[in-house]
Amino acid sequence: MSEADNNLTNKQYITFNLGQERYGIELKEGKEILIPPEITRVPHTPAYVKGVINLRGGVITVLDFKDILGIENDQIYEQEDQRIIITNIEGITFGFMVDQMQGILTFANKNIERENNNETNSEFIKGIYTENNKVIPIIDLKRLILSRKEAI
């Protein structure tokens, strides 16, 4: 597919809030969305590891993306709004906590800026969707997880 053709295609994204900002990941990266069960804290793990959960007999590590991305933990959402998105990147299954789900959106590739000149922890942002008054950073899950692989 040529770059011109690629710019005309659309992709679906799971969108969610972390603090006061909305973020997205590609739909194909999300395997499941859960209401958080009890999370068991694991001693001597980095601050960004919320703990582990039991998911159908398997132990899944739950990460706090707000800590990894440097987002202030402002507690503006109710605990009932929180969700865990389960994903699998290169054979590593994990979950990450989000403050509030926003839904599944379809973005045109032409509206995703690949050059990231913002001040957020940009090494983990692979693009920024912009259209009208919407600005949604797209998280690079693969890069983020591979940089934290030792803790999962």
Overview of the structural elements:
It is a single chain. The protein is mainly β. It has one domain: CheA-289, Domain 4 (OB fold (Dihydrolipoamide Acetyltransferase, E2P)), CATH 2.40.50. It has 3 helices and 11 strands; from the N terminus they run αβββββαββββββα. The strands form 3 sheets. Strands 3-6-7-5-4 form a 5-stranded mixed β-sheet. Strands 2-1-8 form a 3-stranded antiparallel β-sheet, with no helix packed on it. A 3-stranded antiparallel β-sheet has the order 9-10-11, with no helix packed on it. The longest helix is centred in the last third of the chain and has 7 residues. The protein starts with a helix and ends in a 5-residue tail after the last helix.
